[in-house]
Amino acid sequence: MKPILRIRNLKKNYQDLDGEVEALGGIDLDVYEGELLSIVGPSGCGKTSLLSVLSNLEEKSNGNIEFENDNIKIGYMLQKDALFPWRTILENCLIGLEIQNNLTEETKNKVIELLNTYGLGDFMNKYPSSLSGGMRQRVG
C-alpha cells in the first residue's frame, strides 16, 4: 500500500539572537489512508512546527514532503484559539465563508446547525470573552 503522505529528512530551523535553533531534525514518516496518527511530545519538541510546515504555513529548511495527490488539505487546531474578540461567536464561525466569498443563507444556516450540534447555539450572539476555554476551542 502506498502512503498518502511521505516525509523524508524533514528539517526546520528558526533564527534567534543566538543563532539557529533546530525545531525539526531529520523527520521520516509515512502516513497511510485511514490511519489515525497522534503527535505527542514535550513542549518545544517541534509538534506545531511539523504541522505548520505540512500545512504550508511555514517553509521547511530541508527535506522532502510528498503527498499522494495534489488536492490534499491539511489543517489543525491551534493551541490557543484565534477568535476575534470584536466578533460574535457566529461572526467568528462565518469568517472563513466570508473570506472565500461563499457566505449564503444556506451556508450560514449550516454553521448555525453546527453551533447547535456542538452545544454553542445559545452563545452564537455572545462574544469570545463570554465563553470557557473549551467552548472557545469548539468555536475555533
Structural description of this entry:
This protein is α+β, with helices and mostly antiparallel strands. It has two domains: 5-67, no CATH class; 89-139, no CATH class. It is built from four helices and three strands; from the N terminus they run ββαβααα. The chain has a three-stranded antiparallel beta sheet, with helices on one face. Helix 2 packs across helix 3 (105-117). The longest helix is centred in the last third of the chain and has 13 residues, at 105-117. The radius of gyration is 19 Å and the shape is globular. The model has no long low-confidence stretch (mean pLDDT 89).
Q: What is the total number of structural domains?
A: 2
Shape: globular
Poorly predicted runs are none
Number of strands: 3
List the defining traits of the structure above.
single chain; 140 residues; alpha+beta; three-stranded antiparallel sheet
Task: Explain briefly what this protein structure is.
The chain has helices at residues 47-54, 89-99, 105-117, 133-139, and strands spanning 5-16, 19-31, 62-67. The chain is an alpha+beta fold and 140 residues long. It folds into 2 domains: 5-67, no CATH class; 89-139, no CATH class.
Please give the structural blueprint.
Blueprint: E1 5-16, E2 19-31, H1 47-54, E3 62-67, H2 89-99, H3 105-117, H4 133-139
Antiparallel strand pairs: 1-2, 1-3
Helix pairs in contact: 2-3
